[in-house]
Amino acid sequence: MKSQTSNNRETISCWAGLWRAGSVSALLLVVIIIATGIVFAIEPQPLDGTALDWFILFQKNPLLGLVESELLMILYVIVSMPVALSLYILLRSVNPSWMIVYLVLGLLGVMCFIAARPAFEMLSLSKGYATATSETEKAIFLAAGQTLVATFHGTAFHISYILGSITGLIISIVLLQSNIFGKAFAYVRIASSICDFGLYIPVIGIYLSMLSVLFLFVWNIMIARRLWQLAKYGLEENVYKFDNGPLPETQM
């Protein structure tokens, strides 16, 4: 039977292109977090607002309305897939059972989040409301918009949010068993996942969830750097020698 280190060497060599894609994707996640944070700081979301509040926002600035509807976060979960796939390929030999659960739950979470963020639907309804010629038509658009507001805070969102936290804990457990990543990777992701659940704590919950984003920000940077190192090893296999030792810089 091949050792984990031997399997790791072969895997890293074969999938260098995916590691580069995952590294670039992780950096894009960092950029998206920064961009979203800046927009929300300048123009806070009308999270407690009605459909009319959202319509006014879209009519004032359609692009801002889309961003406030978390269009960038939809992009975030899509861009995160190359990272998730990279981690699955890298770590499936470490714990195949948990890694397939991680990948499946991650995909389910992405689909739920996209369903919970009807940004373009709200844009369309806001346009319809603006051009409505009667109070009856406006009432119809408002009712439809209020349904989308409920969707924004509804079941699909909470499923995606909880699944994101659970997959974070799963990947952390596997990271602790691997010699490809250092323990710091696992600890930072565990911190992010635990703080995620702060959203459900009254009063201070929002601050804990913001702390979770900070940990995730750091983790994405760490993952981007590590995947780039692995891509380099795959392209320049003669640079590193792994006879019996760990892969390079796993102590990070």
Question: How would you describe this protein?
Answer:
The chain is mostly helical and 252 residues long. It has a domain at 4-154 and 220-239. It has helices spanning 4-14, 16-42, 51-60, 62-68, 71-91, 96-115, 119-131, 135-152, 155-177, 183-196, 205-235. α3 (51-60) crosses α8 (135-152). The longest helix has 31 residues, at 205-235. The radius of gyration is 21 Å and the shape is elongated. The model is unreliable at 236-247 (pLDDT under 50).
Briefly summarize what is shown.
With 252 residues, this protein is an all-alpha fold. The protein has helices at 4-14, 16-42, 51-60, 62-68, 71-91, 96-115, 119-131, 135-152, 155-177, 183-196, 205-235.
Which features characterize this protein?
single chain; 252 residues; mainly alpha; 0% strand; elongated
Topology:
Blueprint: H1 4-14, H2 16-42, H3 51-60, H4 62-68, H5 71-91, H6 96-115, H7 119-131, H8 135-152, H9 155-177, H10 183-196, H11 205-235
* Shape type: elongated
Could you give the order of the helices and strands?
Answer: HHHHHHHHHHH
Note the beta-strand portion.
Answer: under 5%
Major β-sheet profile: none
